[in-house]
């Protein structure tokens, strides 16, 4: 839901503010981070953590609408499925100050 809103805002921004001759380049640059590289997967984890943080803030404020609960849980599930060597190792070892440790702490609460 939130991602669709963001994508719509980006599309609107491109249409309104980017000169026609640069629109295709701008769109391509935005998509290039969406591949199977380690960097792309790290970026995806960071985006999901941001989504978790935003939803958690709403839940802390007492806003327990279904959308915020889903917005909190869905990225946790997604992150656990992202294959990153350091994430996999940290999830197994539960090292403090790692992404895996952070996710396990959130999942326990």
From TrEMBL:
It comes from the Bacteria. SUPFAM superfamilies: HD-domain/PDEase-like. This is Uncharacterized protein. It comes from Paenibacillus physcomitrellae. The lineage of its organism: Bacteria, Bacillati, Bacillota, Bacilli, Bacillales.
């Amino acid at each position: 839901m939130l991602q669709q809103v963001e994508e719509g805002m980006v599309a609107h921004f491109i249409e309104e503010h980017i000169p026609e001759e640069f629109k295709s380049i701008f769109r391509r640059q935005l998509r290039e981070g969406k591949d199977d590289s380690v960097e792309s997967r790290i970026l995806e984890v960071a985006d999901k953590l941001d989504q978790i943080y935003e939803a958690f803030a709403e839940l802390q404020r007492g806003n327990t609408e279904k959308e915020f609960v889903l917005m909190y849980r869905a990225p946790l599930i997604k992150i656990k499925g992202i294959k990153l060597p350091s994430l996999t190792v940290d999830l197994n070892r539960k090292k403090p100050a790692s992404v895996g440790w952070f996710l396990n702490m959130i999942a326990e609460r």
